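thread from #wetlab-drylab

HS: before we spend reagent money on co-crystallization trials with 5'-O-(acetylsulfamoyl)adenosine, can we at least see a predicted complex? here's what I'd submit
DV: go for it
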Amino acid sequence: MSYPYQIKSLADYHEAYKKSVEAPEQFWAEIAENFSWHRKWDQVLNWNFDTPKVEWFKGGQLNITENCLDRHAATQPDAPAIIWEPNDPLEAHRTLSYKELLQKVEQFAHVLKNKGAQKGDRICIYMPMVPELAIAVLACARIGAIHSVVFGGFSSQSISDRINDAQCNIVVTADGAYRGNKNIPLKSIIDDALVTCPSVQHVIVLTRTGIPVSMIKNRDAWWEDEIKKVEEMGNPSFPAVSMDAEDMLFILYTSGSTGKPKGVVHTCAGYMIWTHYTFVNVFQYQPGQVHFCTADIGWITGHSYIIYGPLSAGATSLMFEGIPTWPDAGRFWDIVQKHQVNILYTAPTAIRSLMGFGTAPLENKNLSSLKVLGTVGEPINVEAWHWYDEQVGKKQCPIVDTWWQTETGGTMISNMAGVTPAKPSFATLPMPGVQPLLVDENGKEIIGNGVSGNLCIRFPWPGILRTTYGDHERCRQTYFSTYEHLYFTGDGCLRDEDGNYRITGRVDDVLNVSGHRIGTAEVENAINMHTGVVESAVVGYPHDIKGQGIYAFVIFNGMHTDEAHTRQDIMQTVARVIGAIAKPDKIQFVSGLPKTRSGKIMRRILRKIAEGELSHLGDTTTLLDPAVVEEIKMGRL
Ligand code: 7RM
């Protein structure tokens, strides 16, 4: 496949950017012409950020899976679409060509249809990182069902909240999952979740680990048995269902500043074009290259840059089931060597954790296939950037620092590999179609360079979220009401003298722990479920590997046998309610929390204490009880 819209030089970039701002409709229409449509659109863009309402390619009809599968299966049937590397290096890898992947997606689309799935239904997918996860996702898209993938590390409670919010009628899962030396009982976690999910009628269970599971009659079926039924039907093809450009493609839950995760909604055409365009340009993908994105498909990065971006481009996408440090800290490098990976896209937290093992795991690994490196998920510190550049890229590979969010669908601010200049710890320049600006607390735009403020976007791009599932008002409130007529990202940002952007981190109550977004309110709610807890306050603090760690201040009134034991109990509670990723790193027991006279917890003070900045707490005179601050300082962990 060729990409006529691939930007080839800095001058090209400036030209494309200018056109995308001056004539956005013409710009995106020309790109959209390169996809397969059942019907062309009537209007390129219709929008209003106040409602908010954004519609791209309204009236157009298409199916994203024809763009990701059929057209490549026709022109390059034997080209590898997915290379799958298992958790355990002793197990054989698998390669699925475009022809094979299409056939498997059609088979599973039949399975879903046989279970009664219809266009518009919501289907929850809770699976390990195996090819069948991508197959399930694409099969949903093929029949027009809306997928809601839930990361395999979330607890029963988190799953049932998400299933109930979206009213899913089908769940696709596996018996278990391998992650490093752990064996996670996915089906049993699903069984616990479904006790409180009356909307679910069918559960399809893939065999992965072989651990015993309980199968409930008339509800649960094995993936393999259902596939056999389709084979017995003679493996009929499955014509892709025609979708409106603005029909929902998927829901993905993400944390915000309130306790309840939001179901971010993306639609078919805009999301497809945005992930494709950003994939091809940011990584400068060349046909035949192997792209390795290390994210889990449970997060947006996996949706956009393991599945939809690469496959829409006819690329080879490498999917890895395991973790970077098992069986040893050379796992990524073995994979790069074994599969001749050309593009490696990972998170700063993974780089920092591997840095901790020194350079020994890199010795005798042939990384010469690498052409482009990428990072995503959190700010990358300069030290990690240089380590990545020197030890992994051998100073031969451009590094793209891609800033974006679940809500933006794809990359928003990033350099383009080898085409626009990189600057360590800077995401640098906006993608064509992205119009960033910085504002102060009052929403006044901060003009000029060498300034910082809150990062907003003033014009829609094709991949912007359309709503939060079932609660459009919440979408308006969260993203479009803080500053009038603008999309607010929740991130703080600096713009240097040359106009390069550096994202400095969240300015709301959202933590970024190892690249995972976690709301402080969510963690507090989970802690408060422990019977002995009276109240809690959670803040982030700088953590060498995770980027941010979770620090919890807890008022405990229960029966203390000993503090260490109570800490463990609270950790367990959080793991049960949310998942292990949200376990606090530190729990400090306190007798009170710093509150204003109106009862608001002053997190600013707690944040400073957690960071260890004990002497610059700022004004504490408005506190109800200033003495409590002294006590908390004394007991700091
Ligand atoms: C893709 C993803 C979004 C939040 C975002 C930022 C932070 C992501 C970068 C970054 C600095 C980056 N989606 N973030 N990428 N900060 N530099 N290159 O991570 O919805 O899970 O998180 O992540 O704070 O708002 S996400």
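DV: The pocket of 5'-O-(acetylsulfamoyl)adenosine is lined by residues 254, 299-301, 376-379, 401-406, 427, 489-491, 503, 505-506, 512, 517 (CB under 6 Å).
HS: ok that's useful, forwarding to the group
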